[in-house]
Amino acid sequence: MSEAAEAGGAGRDPEAVSKFVEGFAAQLVEAGMQRMPARVFAALLSSDSGSLTSAELGERLQVSPAAVSGAVRYLSQQHMVSREREPGSRRERYRVHSNQWYEALTNREAILKRWEGALREGVASLGADTPAGRRMAETLAFFEFLDGELAKLMDRWRVHREKVFGSP
């Protein structure tokens, strides 16, 4: 089924799908995501295939190819979408995977580690006994705690996901 047929077919109301995409995108924007990446992500997430071309995204969202390109670049950097070549074509498809949240969060581990390193330097340079050094040490302790808890949480999620949805 084509993506255009998918949006209006199978008992779907294209207006309701569009309303969902824009509403969920607005929630992502409130959480700090840029507007266009949020819209592209919501459009991909709401497609049955989880995969759309730049032209399909542009048509669905009524935006330019350049806007789609910038959004996809950002989402790729955040590990929220991947690019795939259409077999026998030069066109790329952009795909969101069922475990995109897991991937996005686990890839944050590298960022947390870098922040922890920077904060350690901050504590050392400011002095652990100064007010600023103590604030920096508390921030460091928070990120260390978060890093450890996130790893445990991701392990529990894998077990839970398998119970609920079966093997990936």
State the shape.
Answer: elongated
The overall pLDDT average reads 88
Compute the number of strand runs. Answer: 3
Which spans of ≥5 residues are poorly predicted at pLDDT below 50? Answer: 1-5
Question: Which strand order do you get reading across the main beta sheet?
Answer: 1-3-2
Order of helices and strands: HHHEHHEEHHH
Structural class: mainly alpha
| SS summary, helix count | 8
Give helix % range: 55-70%
- Rounded to an integer in angstroms, the radius of gyration calculated over CA atoms is 20 Å
Major beta sheet summary: 3 strands, antiparallel
Relative strand content? 5-15%
Distance between the termini: 24 Å
Q: Please, could you describe this protein's structure?
A:
With 168 residues, this protein is mainly α. The protein contains eight helices and three strands. The chain has a three-stranded antiparallel sheet. Helix 4 (54-61) packs across helix 5 (65-77). The longest helix is centred in the C-terminal third of the chain and has 35 residues, at 131-165. Residues 1-5 have low confidence and may be disordered.
